[in-house]
Design a protein that fits this description.
Blueprint (H helix, E strand, L loop, with lengths): L4 H5 L27 H19 L2
Length: 57
Amino acid sequence: MRIAEPLIDTKKLFHVPGSSQFRLPAYMVFPRDSDSIVLQQVLESLRSLAIAEQKKP
């Protein structure tokens, strides 16, 4: 999700065609030796989203 997206949706900001986009890194801390199924699902989802974002122009 883009940081400004909610503001764009509510018309408080607007997108300027041809303007620069800034991508910010995200970090997550978790135990490597966890057996949590939920944690594994979250990590897989985040990795998939990261790959999809990298493919965007």
